[in-house]
Design brief:
CATH topology of the largest domain: Rossmann fold
Strand order of the largest sheet: 7-8-12-11-10-9-13-14
Shape: globular
Strand content: 5-15%
EC number: 4.2.1.12
Oligomer: single chain
CATH superfamily of the largest domain: Response regulator
Keywords: 4Fe-4S, Carbohydrate metabolism, Gluconate utilization, Iron, Iron-sulfur, Lyase, Metal-binding
Low-confidence stretches: none
Pfam family, one: ILVD_EDD_N
Largest sheet: 8 strands, mixed
Mean pLDDT: 95
GO molecular function: 4 iron, 4 sulfur cluster binding; metal ion binding; phosphogluconate dehydratase activity
Structural class: alpha/beta
CATH class of the largest domain: Alpha Beta
Distance between the termini: 38 Å
Function: Catalyzes the dehydration of 6-phospho-D-gluconate to 2-dehydro-3-deoxy-6-phospho-D-gluconate.
Helix content: 25-40%
């Protein structure tokens, strides 16, 4: 067994030590739930009869407890392409459960919004907080006590973290996530990006833009760029929460169905044997594995928010300094769009998660001793699934089939994971250097300040940004407006950069895995509405953003002596007023940007 890299070990040890008090309380709660919590044997006859009244042919098995009963929590809807395949999953999963003497019931559903649809719209202000709603919906679904194991159906951005956070409150039960896979490749992402930029320059019209977008997002399955949704799938593999190799197999294929069947059989086995409960699977080592995978593959910066939130739900504390130190130890071994030309299907065919796990294990960068739910040992995640006739088997993957996309750790694209912590008198922020050319890791320029992205677009169209400039978009944090992603900024800022200007973005908002080629200090905290110095900046202040030195600084100015800018009015319409209570109490981004977790920790 390869010795764990001492830098990864040091971060893990620090996370374990920092987490001890809260982790102990969490595990004690889960032990108490296993011993005395609500479950089928403890339900009254009236409670229990309600629970199996409509179970059809499974009714007798559930009533007499002849086998484990799996609770399915589904984020199905047929507007969201990634989740449309889940429509038929429950009836299939019930059949698969019966094959091994188990039963399955849909415990409940959760909302599943699409950031692709709401991007740049008012609905995006609900996006981050939908993670809390999903977690609470998962808890409501599982609160009936009818279940011995959990199957979570969800893929996209806030949905997987939300499902996990909710399921961790039932961490005495075993659980697996059951993915549905990415859509087949459509229009090449680079071509889509080219048309978007032409539209931003006014060189093509809306019809041409819509044609390009529809050719890219064209069918059922996850979007094929390596954003938050597909980063979710990578992390679930490296945390041991999938059947090995399940992440990137396309929907509607025999292999996809075989993996779903294997997941149901596995949850039923773990439930029957009362083995590998979720609380033990998600420990400090699993959280570090997720972070290592994120850095090694150039995954979404949204997970700088989601990893701390998932960890908190398990009583674990990890911060951006931990991520930055892991980034120094972990090389960048994948180039997947928007950090490369190929998409996740290309990544999968190049060796995908199997080769990624293999080369990271060989380098001592992953914890191989974690307790995995999807297999008996972590080594299984270094293999790729295939069908031998009708039998599901796994093959070793020892080399990459495409070194332009996926490389071994000894021959990386970059020596580090490319997610830097930048700090200074403007606060703490994330800079994803892996997406940006090294010649643009340092930008020093006067700033232009905005309070929303539409103001930036108006200034761009008026030619007011045709110069060296650092665009500051403030009052975009969790407390201000729910921390929407600011993807509308990528094409115009890219145009300015291509004109030869030194351009960067500084914001307390989000940009996610699609942040692209423009240098950006994002998730800045404290946010402007919560005492952050972004609120004290003025147009023309010179800002230095440096990925080399980890610096985010307003130069030659004492911000503490200035008055903060006036706050924008609170967002209303599109249901945003319903989320006001969350905005009022939300944590900073580095803690996960959650109102729910902050309140939960006051209780336990």
């Amino acid at each position: 067994m390869t010795r764990l890299d001492p830098r990864v070990a040091a971060v893990t040890d620090r996370v374990i030590e920092r987490s001890k008090p809260r982790r102990i309380r969490y595990l004690e709660l889960m032990a108490a739930e296993a011993d005395a919590g609500i479950s089928r044997p403890r339900l009254s006859c009236g409670n229990f009869a309600h629970g199996f009244a409509a179970a059809g042919e499974d009714k007798d098995v559930i009533r007499h407890m002849r086998g484990p009963n799996i609770g399915i929590v589904t984020a199905y809807n047929d507007m969201l392409s990634a989740h449309q395949p889940y429509g038929r999953y429950p009836e299939q999963m019930k059949l698969f459960a019966r094959e091994v003497g188990a039963t399955a019931q849909v415990a409940g559903g959760t909302p599943a919004m699409c950031d692709g649809v709401t991007q740049g719209q008012a609905g995006m202000d609900l996006s981050l907080f939908s993670r809390d709603i999903i977690a609470m919906s998962t808890a409501v679904a599982l609160s009936h006590g009818m279940f011995d194991g959990i199957a979570l159906l969800g893929i996209c951005d806030k949905i997987v973290p939300g499902l996990l956070i909710g399921a961790l409150r039932f961490g005495h039960l075993p659980a697996l996530l059951v993915p549905a896979g990415p859509m087949p490749s459509g229009l090449a992402n680079k071509e889509k990006q080219r048309v978007r930029q032409l539209f931003a320059e006014g060189k093509v019209g809306k019809e041409e833009l819509l044609q390009a977008e529809a050719a890219s997002y064209h069918g059922a399955g996850t979007c094929t760029f390596y954003g938050t949704a597909n980063s979710n799938q990578m992390m679930m593999e490296l945390m041991g929460l999938h059947i090995p190799g399940a992440a990137f197999v396309n929907p509607g294929t025999p292999l996809r169905q075989a993996l779903t069947r294997a997941a149901v059989h596995r949850v039923a086995q773990l439930a029957a044997e009362k083995q590998r409960p979720l609380a033990q699977v998600i420990d400090e080592r699993a959280i570090v594995n997720a972070a290592v995978g994120l850095l090694a593959t150039g995954g979404s910066t949204n997970h700088a928010i989601h990893i701390p939130a998932i960890a908190r739900a398990a009583g674990i504390s990890i911060d951006w300094q931990d991520l930055a130190e892991l980034s120094e130890a972990v090389p960048l071994i994948a180039r997947v769009y928007p950090n490369g030309s190929g998409d996740v299907n290309d990544f999968h065919h190049a060796g995908g998660m199997a080769f990624t796990a293999r080369t990271l294990l060989d380098a001592g960068l992953l914890h191989s001793d974690i307790l995995t739910a999807g297999a008996d040992s972590f080594d299984a995640f270094a293999t790729a699934p295939c069908l031998d006739g009708d039998v599901l088997v796994w093959d070793k993957v020892d080399q990459s089939a495409n070194l332009e996309m996926l490389r071994p750790t000894v021959e990386p694209f970059l020596a580090d994971g490319g997610m830097r912590l930048v700090t200074g008198n403007l606060g703490r922020a994330i800079f994803k250097t892996s997406a940006v050319g090294p010649d643009r890791w340092t930008i020093e320029a006067p700033c232009r300040i905005f309070s929303d992205q539409d103001q930036v677009l108006a200034a761009f169209k008026a030619g007011e940004l045709d110069r060296d400039v650092i665009v500051v978009v403030r009052f975009q944090g969790p407390r201000a407006n729910g921390m929407p992603e600011l993807h509308k900024l990528t094409p115009p800022l890219g145009v300015l950069q291509d004109k030869g200007f030194n351009v960067a973005l500084v914001t307390d908002g989000r940009m996610s895995g699609a942040s692209g080629k423009v240098p950006a200090a994002i998730h800045c905290c404290p946010e402007a509405l919560n005492g952050g110095h972004l609120a004290r900046l003025r147009d023309g202040d010179v800002i230095r953003l440096c990925g080399h030195d980890g610096l985010l600084e307003a130069m030659d100015v004492d911000l503490s002596t200035r008055e903060a800018a006036s706050l924008p009015p609170p967002p209303v319409g599109t249901g945003r007023e319903l989320f006001a209570f969350m905005r009022l109490t939300a944590d900073d981004a580095e803690l996960g940007g959650s109102a729910m977790l902050h309140a939960m920790e006051e209780v336990i």
